[in-house]
Amino acid sequence: MVHAPVLAIAVPLLGAFALPLLARLNRRARDLWAAGIAVATLVFGIAVAVQVFASGRPLVYTLGAPSPTASVTEGGFPIRIVLVVDALGAYMGIIALLAGAVGLFYSFQYLVEEEGKTLGTSLLLLLWAGILGLVYTGDLFNFFVFLEITSIAACALIGYRVWEPRPPEAAFKTMVMYTLGGLLVLVSVGILYGEYDALNIAYLSKLITGTLLDKLALGLLLGGLLMKAGAVPAHMWAPDAYGEAPAMAAIVLVANTQAAIYALLRVVFTLFGGALASPGIGWLIASLGTVTVLVAVLMAVVQRHLGRLVAYGAVSQLGYMLLAVGVGVVAAGKGFGEVALKGGIFHMINDLASVGLLFLVVGAIRRAVGSVDLLSLGGLGHTLRWESGFFLLGALALAGIPPLNGFASKFLIYESTFKASPILAAVAVLSSILLLGVGVRAFHGIFLGPKTRDVASSPRGMLVAMGVLAVIIVVFGLFPGFFIERMVSPAVQAILGGRASYLAAVLGG
Amino acid sequence: MRIGSGEGFWSPIVWVILALGVLAIGFAVWLQGRRTYKRGTEQEEPFLSGERLPEGAGVGATHLYWGFAEALKPLLVRLGAFHSGFLGDYVGWLLVLLVISILVVMLG
Q1: Closest of A346, A391, A347 to residue A489, by C-alpha
Q2: Which of A6, A138, A187, A207 could form a disulfide with A84 if both were Cys (CB 3.0 to 4.6 A apart)?
Q3: Helix, strand, coil in percent for chain B, rounding step 5
Q4: Are residues A268 and A323 in the same domain?
Q5: pLDDT of residue A48 exceeding 80
Q6: A185: nearest CA in chain B?
Q7: A261–B contact, CB cutoff 8 A
Q8: Phi, psi of A452 (to 5 degrees)
Q9: Nearest Cα to A208, choosing from A267, A251, A249?
Q10: Which domain holds residue B6?
Q11: A396-416 residue pLDDT tens
């Protein structure tokens, strides 16, 4: 398993391009190929996570070197592309693996042959590969390349159903925003390369001293990554994208957006951690996070389109993560800063499970009824019984109702945020209450009331995919300490105190 | 399996035990009630202030938070206008975010 980090990226990448060729031969072969690619990617990704969590050290893999561990030349200068997976990267990798595997499994019965099943599956694999590359890479230009791969695959996934009017429009808007965000990142990479002649994150981190150009590069990176993380006021692409994407893509898009929050942590704590991580940046991220939570929840209240309603719910959860990251930066070195980061990082996987489950149920409703307009739905609980249970569970978890997983992570975020700013904590709590109202209203509107139509329940494969997320919601809610201790705490330590070990793992010494 | 925040703690298992206790008390109270409910009778009709309701009438999802949405209408109207759907606005707000980010880093 020495080559597991690169194989976890290469397998879905090559698998995505080979899939349309296999589909030309035989559809069954195509599905088997996709399933095989998914299993192989899961095996390699889990192998990476096990190695990192078991050893407690970052895993370094060098491409094009005599040995995968030779990350620097004889002169001590890193010229090769390296993959560096620390506990944070491994944790984010697990989130990406979960999203990709569940999305792919769901898509087998959700996607219809006549509506681009081959294209949708290919793009899903491509997006999966891009996210894994983005979180595993230790090279800044490579990071930009994977950012672009995710952007192109995500926009194509949102808009490939060109026979419908809204998806292409949503894809176009998302593409423009992603392109601008990507340009900001590229200019920033260019500034740092021009200044230091290096692209290796660890090596750059060692050299960055906090010059005016460094500050400009950090500002550009923050702008681009905050936009991609769905922070208000540059969040407007997110409801368009999530709301119009096919259900199996929406859950992977959530993981893709969370990868931007991972990148934010990597940039602030690892790349610029030695020179420029100031409380001002933390307050900026925390304030934007709080405004994002409030604005997204208020917009969710007035939505009629069920997809957009869940999409605004998803944006609000991104706000909670940004709030936690911001408090973590403000209080770096203090106990409650660590608690905030634990809450924020734990909330990533909780959010993926609850929002992902809601998106999958919305997909099931769209498939069964043909509409996601709240005013035209009602009484579906008589026939879509599993789906109604899953929706209620997801909505309650999203609102942070105990004992579900959303409460455990929000508890840590609320308590730590209160120490930094009681006002921000109060807004965060109030927004959760509003979110409960949004969920109750949606559940009532979709599933309760007299039976108005006969619809067929979802195929078993789709229900199993939803069931996996439901189990995660309950298990992570009942045993949060188990997962925080084994996965979240190492990830927090990797960013708070692990910069030195990250640099040492890549550069030696 | 509890988690601590430094100030307090959260134990889902304790919460579940307490919740089951509350449910048991609620069930015991329910058992004391009158057993006059009959399925398939007019007792199953919705009761809204004693009014005779037309067939299929009910409380819609939008009615549940009508008062809430009405109270927040001025804010929601402004937020709706803010989310115009025009790509030019999206780009404009990205520029605002970018300028704020650069200023905070430069001054921070």
Answers
A1: A346
A2: A138
A3: 60, 5, 35
A4: no
A5: yes
A6: B98
A7: no
A8: -110, -15
A9: A267
A10: 1-36
A11: 999 999 999 999 999 999 999
pLDDT in tens, A437-473: 899 889 998 998 888 888 999 999 999 999 999 999 9
- What is the rounded CA–CA span in Å between residue A364 and residue A356? 12
What was the pLDDT predicted at A50? 97
What is the rounded CA–CA span in Å between residue A135 and residue A262? 7
Residue at A227: amino acid letter: M
Residue A484 belongs to a domain: no
Contact A223 B94 (CB under 8 A): yes
Residue B60 located in a structural domain = no
Q: What is the distance between the alpha carbons of residues A142 and A84, in angstroms, rounded to a whole number? A: 12
Note down the domain range covering A66: 1-277+502-509
Q: Which of A181, A284, A415 sits opposite B8 (nearest CB)?
A: A415
What average pLDDT does the segment A110-121 reach? 92
The one-letter code for the residue type at B83 is H
DSSP-derived secondary structure for A237-304: HHHHHHHHS-HHHHHHHHHHHHHHHHHHHIIIIIISTTTT--HHHHHHHHHHHHHHHHHHHHHHHT--
The full DSSP string for B55-92 is TT----HHHHTHHHHHHTHHHHHHHHHHS---HHHHHH
Which residue among B10, B65, B97 sits closest to A223, beta carbon to beta carbon?
A: B97
Residues on chain B touching A441 (C-beta within 8 angstroms): 61-62, 64-65
Residue A236 has pLDDT above 70, yes or no: yes
Q: Taking a contact as any Cβ pair under 8 Å apart, which residues of chain B between 24 and 53 contact chain A?
A: none
Q: What pLDDT shows up at residue A53?
A: 96
The mean per-residue pLDDT over the stretch B15-20 comes to 96
Residues with Cβ within 8 Å of residue A31, at least 6 apart in sequence: A108
Read off the pLDDT of each residue in A32-45 and give the average, rounded to a whole number.
97
- Give the minimum alpha-carbon distance from B89 to chain A in angstroms, rounded to a whole number: 9
Q: What is the pLDDT of residues A268-295, one digit of tens each?
A: 999 998 667 788 999 999 999 999 999 9
**Inter-residue contact A168 to A201 (CB < 8 Å):** no
Number of structural domains (chain A) is: 2
Distances (CA, A) of A456 to A358, A438, A464: 19, 26, 16
**Does B25 reside within a domain?**
yes
Q: Which residue of A has its CA nearest to B11?
A: A478
* pLDDT computed for residue B60 by the predictor: 67
User: What count of other Cβ atoms lies within 10 Å of the Cβ of residue A333?
Assistant: 8
**The tokens 């040995």 sit on which residue?**
A67
A139 and A270 in a single domain? The answer is yes
CA pair distance B42, B52, nearest whole angstrom: 12
How far, CA to CA in Å, does A469 sit from each of A204, A353, A393?
39, 5, 10
Contacts of B15 in chain A (CB under 8 A): 402-403
Q: Would you call A475 helix, strand, or coil by DSSP?
A: helix
